[in-house]
Specification:
By secondary structure, the protein is of the alpha+beta class. It has 14 helices and 25 strands. The longest helix has 16 residues. Bound molecules: zinc ion. The site of zinc ion (ZN) has 7 residues, from loops. This is DUF3854 domain-containing protein.
């Protein structure tokens, strides 16, 4: 990545409170120079507030929002908004466009599975994450062993690891090389060598890349690059499996949800306002310093709970000053990706294949698994990789063997409702005859989700699948409904 893009990503990530990544789309600046669009990937779109789907150009002057329409014609799947309130970032577009990092084609499932299993064994689940999973209704057996390896892991950046864990967990270190000079060493080189494998094996596995590193103190200054896994989001590693129980991708379920505060109306400039927002508890506090407010850290003039995207008005200074703002929350799940890193890998987002336990425990070469894939079957369709694993683990506690034959024993999930097209290849690969759709029960209230759901049904019908729609009473998601033994209703769709 060039320093031009890095610099602007840094400024814009700070401004929009979260991650951004380079997309394949381009914008043109006012001189007609090509500049890349950055996708929101945790950072929030200033138009709709969502942490994904929209884009901002690298100078920060234009947003393409895919949610909020305006009078303009749609461009790149969304509507164009000029951002005038913020100062555009100066940008040498020639430099930026020519020097995109070299990435690798995606590795085979066999190779990504091997590397990801090593990741899981190096990053064991923390007690906190284990409790979360048990609380969600996942059995200990599945947490500890899935297709012959730990079912989940916990990802922390090396900064956190270095502080609280044994240093051998760290991915990078340095040691004298043959010429006596200090050089960076990656734990990945060491592990792969020890396993008798090529030290290049990580290339093409999403999440892995060549990290440029530097360590400097008063006496030493070491620079170098070394293979590295992961990005900056910390949280639980949720594997995505293909039909052979091979891990083909990871999502991170973040420990802390980011927030973005957008001030819509400022008070008089004599007042300095600071707004704290906590994405986990939805609590906020507004502090003010200025005439009449002399506490060292600012005087709290308002606090309470916020709703995502809701406008909040605060009057202070005996009602003479007014502040209006809104707080938007970032996403809960992120793909572990290295699409825009040196020697990183780009990918297409995978579909989760979550089998019932007797099949989920089997490795790719197991004949029982290979035969099972070919058998005609019914499956459940939902959205959310972790939800699918929890649901598949709980189906047999809710339904009889005949019911399972009819509605399915296994759960297939896309990562988000808008990627429903990804279902179809999987349904063919698994020789599926009948599907039971089981989207979150609030799907009818969200027009975008409802539209995607309708398209899914239409496409399934075109492909001649037998379609059943599952509904349940209280809980939102399929996993919750199964764990809490909700009463289910099944509606024949065709
Ligand atoms: Zn937007």
């Amino acid at each position: 990545m060039t320093s031009e893009i890095e610099k602007s990503i840094e400024i814009l990530s700070e401004r929009y409170k979260g991650r951004l990544r380079i997309s394949n789309c381009y914008d043109y600046d006012k001189n007609g120079e090509k500049i890349p669009f950055l996708e929101f990937a945790g950072a929030c779109c200033p138009i709709c507030g969502r942490s994904h789907y929209c884009m901002i150009n690298a100078t920060g002057s234009r947003v393409i929002c895919t949610k909020v329409p305006n009078d303009d014609k749609k461009r790149l799947n969304g509507w164009v908004y000029e951002i005038n309130g913020e100062k555009p970032i100066s940008f040498n577009s020639n430099l930026a466009v020519k020097q995109r990092p070299k990435t690798n084609p995606q590795a085979s499932a066999k190779r990504s599975d091997l590397l990801y299993r090593i990741v899981l064994s190096m990053r064991p689940l923390t007690d906190k994450h284990r409790q979360d999973l048990l609380h969600r209704g996942l059995s200990q057996a599945v947490i500890d062993s899935y297709a012959g390896h730990p079912g989940f892991g916990s990802y922390f950046t090396d900064k956190t690891y270095g502080k609280n864990h044994h240093p051998h967990d760290m991915q990078l270190g340095f040691a004298p090389s043959k010429d006596g000079k200090l050089a960076f060493k990656s734990r990945w080189d060491f592990i792969l060598k020890k396993l008798g494998l090529s030290t290049e094996l990580w290339k093409g596995v999403p999440g892995f890349y060549l990290k440029e590193c530097r360590y400097k103190n008063r006496t030493i200054d070491v620079t170098g690059e070394a293979p590295y896994f992961g990005n900056n989001a910390e949280g639980m590693l949720v594997p995505y499996y293909n039909e052979f129980n091979q891990i083909v991708g990871f999502q991170i379920r973040v420990d802390h949800i980011s927030t973005q505060v957008k001030v819509l109306r400022y008070p008089n400039k004599k007042y300095y306002v600071n707004i704290d927002a906590n994405g986990d508890t939805n609590e906020y506090a507004v502090r003010v310093t200025g005439p009449g407010y002399y506490d060292e850290d600012g005087t709290i003039i308002a606090q309470g709970e916020f709703k995502d995207g809701e406008e909040i008005n605060v009057n202070f200074c005996q009602g003479l000053q007014r502040l209006t703002f809104e707080i938007k929350k970032g996403g809960k799940y992120f793909w572990v990706s290295s699409a825009n890193q040196k020697e990183g890998a780009s990918w297409s987002t995978p579909v989760q294949v979550a089998y019932h336990r007797n099949i989920a425990k089997r490795k790719a070469t197991d004949q029982v698994l290979i035969d099972y894939i070919k058998n005609p079957k019914s499956v459940w369709l939902t959205e959310g990789g972790l939800k699918a694993i929890v649901a598949a683990d709980n189906l047999s506690k809710n339904f009889s063997s005949e019911e399972l034959d009819k509605y399915g024993r296994d759960v297939i999930a896309v990562a988000g409702v808008s990627s429903y097209r990804k279902f179809f290849d999987k349904l063919e690969a698994l020789n599926v005859r009948s599907v039971t759709t089981a989207y979150d029960m609030d799907y009818k209230e969200n027009p975008q989700v409802k539209a995607n759901y309708d398209s899914l049904i239409a496409e399934l019908r075109k492909r001649n699948y037998h379609i059943i729609r599952a509904e349940w009473s209280k809980e939102k998601g399929l996993d919750d409904a199964l764990v809490k033994k909700s009463s289910f209703k099944f509606i024949e769709v065709n």
